Amino acid sequence: MKSPSMQLAHMDDEGAVIIYRSNRTGMSKYLIGQMTEVAHEFYNLNIKAYVIESQNDIAGGTSGPIRLSNMPLTVMVKYRLDFDNREYMAKRVNVIAHPTQLKLAAVNMSVFLDLFPFTLVLDRDMCIKHAGEKIYETWILHNPGKNPKEFLHSHILDVFECRRSKDIKIEWDTINQMRTVLLNSSYCEQVVIEQLMPQL
């Protein structure tokens, strides 16, 4: 069974929106209770959690979504968490780059890739422009005899699949919005590579 994922989709002064994805149904009410209790017990925070959107969820069922075809179905539940989030929102930094941050010196790409050997550098078309040493090592391991730079300039989905966060669109705007989220990707031959997408 694949583990579920949760993604912060939005936050504001009055709370946040979280998206839950899983292959199991019937967990939406349990998660409301779990989030409410964790907020109270660990953070001394009173929240109101409720479902604002749901797909493929069956109340009380835990066996999985009903399938009418062979296509895999994923349960998606969007929660609204209402709580006083003003203090956090007021303290957020770097939401908009300060003018001094825009004038930082460029970092040499080879230095960047040495620091982050599991990194892929993508262009706006989601094509691979550069890769760290460990990405190349993985490619060589699973493609003996092939040129290790063969995957350069390929679309990322031609070489990797996104295992987590589930069901996100692999597009520039989506990845840029989620630039602080750890993505778990698989090489097409199921070699797992974890990477933090660079803030481009």
From TrEMBL:
Q: What is its EC number?
A: 4.6.1.2
Mind telling me what this protein is named?
guanylate cyclase
Which Pfam families does this entry report, sorted A to Z?
HNOB, HNOBA
- How is this protein annotated for GO cellular component? guanylate cyclase complex, soluble
Q: Does the keyword Nucleotide-binding apply?
A: yes
Which keywords does the record carry? cGMP biosynthesis, Nucleotide-binding
Q: What sequence ranges are listed for the domain Heme NO-binding? A: 1-48
- Give the Gene Ontology MF terms in alphabetical order: guanylate cyclase activity; heme binding; nucleotide binding
Q: Which residues form the Haem NO binding associated domain?
A: 107-184
Source taxon at top rank = Eukaryota
- Enzyme type, top EC level: lyase
Extract the InterPro entries matched here.
Answer: H-NOX_domain_sf, Heme_NO-bd, HNOB_dom_associated, HNOB_dom_associated_sf, NO_sig/Golgi_transp_ligand-bd
Write down the SUPFAM superfamilies for this protein, in alphabetical order: Ligand-binding domain in the NO signalling and Golgi transport
Q: Name one GO biological process term.
A: response to oxygen levels
